[in-house]
Amino acid sequence: MKNIVLIGFMGTGKTVVGRRLARRLKREFIDTDAEIEKLMGKTVAQIFARDGVVRFRSEEELLVKKLAKREDLVIATGGGMVLNTENLLLLKENGILVALTASPEIIYDRVRGNKNRPLLMHGDMMEKIRELLQERENAYKAAEITVDTGNSSIVEIVEQIT
Ligand code: S3P
Residue 114: which domain range? Predict the structure, then answer.
């Protein structure tokens, strides 16, 4: 069966929803950020600080290439994965893309205490969220299904995807 691939901005719930969805469908769950952290033996924040964003994106691309060849997975991607069109196309060939969304205010509430979001650590966090959201809005539209995670429980969100 085709993979289910969760895309969407930071803080839209890709990891939490993906884990629950995988359990419900009895599928393997893969979180690309966690895989890259395991592979490189560092947190995402450390990778950005020590190796740079370009290195992170190339690790992400390599991983996507591997995952796109597999089946029956639930995959939670990093919020910036969609910036690489080739990644998106590869994942779409063998997967159903599901975009999770939330308002900038809800995203801010969910991510503000988290130190592992290097792109939001400098300057005004709310401003950065709005700016990046605007830049990426179109890319997230590549999904076949879009689910707003702002006002629903995890169970309700999983229900909408299945
Ligand atoms: C990023 C999102 C993060 C992580 C990295 C870059 C982005 O993933 O991949 O910090 O560019 O939006 P989450 O969406 O899981 O936070």
Answer: 3-161
Cβ(8) – ligand 1 distance below 6 Å:
no
Residue 23 Cα to ligand 1 midpoint, Å, equals 23
**pLDDT tens digits, 67-125:** 999 999 999 999 999 999 999 999 999 999 999 999 999 999 999 988 899 999 988 99
19 phi-psi bin (left φ>0, alpha ψ -120 to 50, beta other): alpha
**How many separate domains does the chain show?**
1
CATH number at residue 40: 3.40.50.300
CA distance 75 to 52: 24
Among protein residues, the one whose CA lies closest to atom 11 of ligand 1: 80
Q: Which two tokens mark 152? A: 């629903």
